[in-house]
Write a structure and sequence with these properties.
By secondary structure, the protein is mainly beta. It has strands at 2-3, 7-10, 23-26, 34-36, 49-53, 56-61, 76-81, 86-87, 91-92, 101-103, 106-109, 113-114, 119-120, 124-127, 132-135, 152-153, 156-159, 172-175, 180-183, 196-199, 203-207, 220-224. The two termini are 28 Å apart. It comes from Microlunatus ginsengisoli.
């Protein structure tokens, strides 16, 4: 995970209940080398994911699942203080979800939609400054939200897959402050699988990928969003 202009973190994913340690790399230091952070206080967790927010590292993960088929566990979070090289006491969040992403002054857990049940299965919004939690607002279209991309476009985030075709769901832009959704125009042509995506403050770029017939695509599209 890239953090700021010159810092990189290696965040272990699934830990299988084992002790894990994050690694940090500061490319601006005199000696560029990886170092191990102190053990985080999340303990046994299904997985860990992180985001860089206002000069701080937030680490999140749910406790180990108690059984299959149950409801998703709410996340727990802890913050790493780079000055003292210590972690804060973990607190229980009020959302479920994966892939926390910093979007302006909010942290968003993209929702993974469930079109068959007719509801967003997970996701939420956190305002660290106010310590305020909120569920994701109901999206415009549930279909396709199981493919959360997490692309940040200015002060908004893409939830869903912008490279999906018109017949298989598509991405939507969420403003986590106003809680307003904006539909993204469907990509021309058939759905693309494993396409490369990127974003700027007002553009979404999709390139390459393959078709359902396993044909490689050597072209792409640029979408300017209002």
């Amino acid at each position: 995970m890239v953090a700021g202009d010159h810092r990189v973190f290696a965040v272990p994913g699934f830990s299988d209940g084992k002790a894990v340690r994050l690694q940090a790399l500061d490319t601006a230091s005199a000696e560029v080398s990886w170092r191990t952070l102190p053990a985080d206080p999340l303990g046994s967790a299904d997985y860990r994911q992180a985001t860089w927010f206002d000069g701080r590292l937030m680490l999140a993960g749910p406790p180990l699942a108690t059984g299959s088929g149950g409801a998703a566990a709410r996340v727990r979070i802890t913050w790493w203080d780079q000055d003292s090289d210590t972690w804060t006491k973990p607190v229980d969040g009020k959302v479920t979800g994966w892939d926390p992403t910093t979007v302006g002054a909010r942290i968003v857990w993209p929702g993974h939609g469930d079109a068959t049940s007719g509801s967003a299965a997970s996701g939420g919004i956190y305002d660290p400054d106010a310590d305020r939690w909120a569920d994701l607002p109901d999206p415009l279209d549930l279909d396709g939200l199981d493919r959360a991309s997490g692309l940040v476009v200015g002060s908004r985030i893409v939830i869903g897959e912008p490279s999906a075709g018109a017949d298989s769901g598509r991405g939507q832009l969420l403003d986590p402050v106003s809680r307003h959704w904006t539909a993204i125009a469907p990509l021309p042509g058939p759905p693309r699988f494993a396409a490369a995506t990127a974003a700027s403050v007002d553009e979404i770029f999709v390139w390459g990928g393959g078709t359902a017939k396993e044909e490689n695509l050597a072209d792409g599209y640029l979408l300017r969003v209002p």
